[in-house]
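pasting for ref
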Amino acid sequence: MSKSARKSVLPSKPHGYEFQGPPGALVLSLGLPLICYLAAFVCNDVSGCPIPSALHPRSLTLAKVKEEAGWPQDGLKGLASLRVSGFVLAYYLLSLVLQAALPGLVQQGVKLRSGARLEYKFNAFSSAMTILLGAAIGTYLNGADFVLWTFIWDNYTQLITVNLGIAFTLSCFVYYRSFSVKAGNKHNRELAPGGHSGNLIYDWFIGRELNPRITFPVIGTIDIKAFCELRPGMLGYVLLDLAFVAHQYKLYGSVSDSIILITTFQSLYVFDALWMEPAILSTMDITTDGFGFMLAFGDLVWLPFIYSLQARYLAVHPVHLGLSGIAGVLAVQAFGYWIFRSANNEKNRFRTNPKDPRVAHLQYMKTSSGGTLLTSGWWGFCRHPNYLGDWIMAWSYSLPTGISGYVVKHGSPVMMSHGAMMDGEGVVSGGPMKQQILQGEARGWGMLITYFYVVYFAVLLIHREMRDEEACKRKYGEDWETYKEKVRWRLLPGIY
């Protein structure tokens, strides 16, 4: 193989392990799915959030935990369903069809090592709006009993299982197929910088091939990584939230301001990403990372099911914020979004056209590799200002849950309006179950669930910026050290 041919497939510099190498990849591959199931069972509408036994570990027994967690009567078999699998696969197929059928912007990605550029079709926003329009019509005709919403609530754990299975299958498929990447191939296929260590577990997790694609009859060629990045999981995030809103209305006959806020914030976050879909071409996920279990699981399972935990909590235990509470949460969200979007727009505008009047005044430094690094504006404030804005917004997703936690008491309080019931201590659901929802001794402990997103997101962003730093160090060399002297702080000036 000639040097020029090899360059078109493999990166020129060794990359090294991330996530503590193969042991870390194995722990994450097994541990993260377990966290998704743990969150589903430990915070539920059967016994409470968290389950009562978690507050009294000395009296904890396996039988009691299964009862309180709502463990399926048929055991592990109950975590999966052929019927649910069929509907989820139909959803994925619909997403593929809409990407192919609807008009969209065709744009070239960044230059590959071979010098070529891949083409991408962007219509994730219109595809999502099409699906949501159908959901809106169904809700108008059937209300909170619309089959989509009841299906999601009734089959929540099975939905986790199906999407986990799809992520696992995709990871295995692209890993196996990556060994067919040959130098000088006409499809411009390349291996990712960090995905060909030679260790099966690590490469399967991190992703061997940079931009795996597959061609379907009629539908055409689909970029698997770009498809998973913004389509099934991202829209699924919104659909889960809406299902939780519908469930709260079904239980209580009204919808709380807290769940409206969270669903609105998270929907706007998703719609913003879908509308700005071409911006993914400059992200590390597309330009650097291979597609393996890390991205497949993150896009299709972790994002929709973990990010929506707050709305799921509020579906069972509504929190009423009032005007002052709403104003406070709105201020946090607006501040974070302003930083996030302003920083990303500044970077994208400068990359697209440095002479744009909106960014022409910015200071920058030239690098020996031919690139430029901004040293003023948001990117002079700190090296990763978009991550800072992202983390601030994360607080507005959890704050509406308040000091969370509840216990489900089975009893027969006095029936109130709309089929809901209430006594002097708390709100209860209507219907034949007659369950009373009280905070009681669980108050505060539910924050381990509803504020998990804030802690996780901080860890994620710090890890991501550390990866960014390493990538930039490899790319820019000594110029990156010079840049760090000009822009000292990573995320939060004066602190980190």
